[in-house]
Specification:
This protein is α/β, with parallel strands linked by helices and about 375 residues long. It folds into two domains: about 260 residues, pyruvate-formate lyase- activating enzyme, CATH 3.80.30.30; about 80 residues, no CATH class. It contains twelve helices and eleven strands. Strands 1-2-3-4-5-9 form a six-stranded parallel beta sheet, covered by helices on one side. Strand 1, helix 2 and strand 2 form a beta-alpha-beta unit. It starts with about 40 loop residues before the first helix and ends in a 5-residue tail after the last strand. It comes from Thermococcus barophilus (strain DSM 11836 / MP). It holds the Pfam family Radical_SAM. Keywords: Iron, Iron-sulfur, Metal-binding.
């Protein structure tokens, strides 16, 4: 998170999620049970609204990271989004459900003020037996793509997240999948590859190995400092990730779609280079974000090489949430960003860790340079 994610202000509205997706990453961080409203979200939005009123840019609130904001009845989500609209707080809404008309109306209102980016997550081009097993209570994929189309038609900037990108499912027909996304009017595609607990690997292998040879290979540790053979959490081999991301990037560009990866560090494929990996650039209001290793990559991309400290120079120049600029913000907010800054500084002191998190960078004689073997 500290090295790769800009979007850390979470507008969690539920204690858990009722969709029951097999691959759900959030289950590692939250408790199970019946979803209950989290009313602290109103306090968060009101506090950010005060900053907006003082013309201090804020990071958009993500609805949400650990649960779907539109799981029924979603009354708290409706109230929270209305409050964000009233106080002019920018938001990113991420869902696998088709919202009610009331929810759609407030999303349209937010977008009319430049306060919204809508992210819709899918795993494949269309529903199938495998998809229904993986996402038993999510809206059918066809409905989610219809949501993107309806949103785009009323001026809501929409992003499609292929999350997680599952080998043997999400990559069966990349061109047709991206045709559907482009047809729906999305502005951007974001991909995030599958990662699984080692003991669950056989589940995916049984379902999808006939469609992808990658299941016959050794998967890698998702934990940067844990050997692959010991890692409890594993991910698709880097070679597959690079090849597949390149295909999605190329085909997205052909269709006029912006492209990014999420927490993959394959920054060379992100286009345009002026766009963040969340699509916050589609907002129509002033906003800011925390620095990440993306800023180190951009420095190396622009100048041919970069020192670790160049990231902080860029951070100050771009007015990101770091260093002296954090003094503009109340302690409840700056404290969290300072903690992430501390962790990012720790990462930058470990070149081998940076190379693991951002495989398109190599450390050479005190500088980070673009990895020519990948680019």
């Amino acid at each position: 998170m500290s090295g790769l994610c800009h979007s850390i202000i979470r507008g969690e509205v539920f204690t858990t999620c009722s969709l029951g997706c097999v691959y759900c990453y959030a289950r590692w961080y939250r408790k199970d049970g019946i979803p209950k409203p989290i009313f602290d979200v109103f306090r968060l939005i009101k506090a950010l609204g005060k900053l907006v009123e003082e013309n201090i840019p804020v990071t958009p609130v993500r609805f949400s990271a650990l649960s779907d904001p539109f799981q029924p009845p979603a009354k708290i989500t409706l109230k929270a989004l209305k409050l964000a609209y009233k106080l002019k707080v920018p938001v990113i809404v991420n869902t696998k459900l088709y919202p009610s008309e009331k929810h759609l109306k407030v999303l349209e209102d937010l977008a009319s003020e430049g306060l919204l980016v809508l992210q819709v997550s899918i795993t494949a081009e269309k529903d199938s037996k495998e998809v229904r097993i993986l996402e038993p209570l999510a809206s059918p994929i066809e409905e989610r793509l219809k949501l993107v189309k309806k949103a785009s038609e009323v001026g809501i900037p929409s992003v499609v997240r292929i999350q997680p990108l599952i080998p043997g499912l999400s990559d069966r027909d990349v061109e047709n999948l991206l045709d559907e996304i482009a047809w729906a009017g999305a502005k951007m595609v974001i991909i995030e590859f599958l990662r699984v607990e080692r003991e669950n690997f056989e589940f995916y292998k049984r379902f999808f190995s006939k469609h992808s040879e990658v299941y016959s290979r050794e998967w890698e540790s998702y934990l940067p400092r844990t050997p692959s053979e010991e890692a409890p959490l594993i991910q698709v081999p880097l070679e597959y990730r690079l090849k597949t991301a390149e295909l999605f990037a190329k085909e997205s560009k052909r269709r006029g779609l912006a492209f990014a990866t999420c927490k993959e560090g394959i920054f060379n494929l992100h286009e345009p280079k002026t766009m963040d990996c969340c699509g916050m650039g589609f907002l129509g209001v002033e906003w800011t974000r925390k620095p990440t290793l993306w800023d180190l990559y951009l420095k190396a991309y622009e100048k041919g090489k970069a020192r670790a400290e160049d990231l902080w120079e860029r951070c100050e120049r771009e007015g990101l949430l770091c260093g002296e600029r954090l003094k503009l913000y109340p302690s409840w907010l700056s404290k969290s960003f300072k903690a992430h800054e501390k962790r990012l500084k720790s990462i930058l002191r470990k070149p081998e860790l940076v190379e693991k998190l951002v495989p398109v960078l190599k450390y050479r004689e005190g500088h980070y340079v673009i990895n020519e073997l990948i680019n």
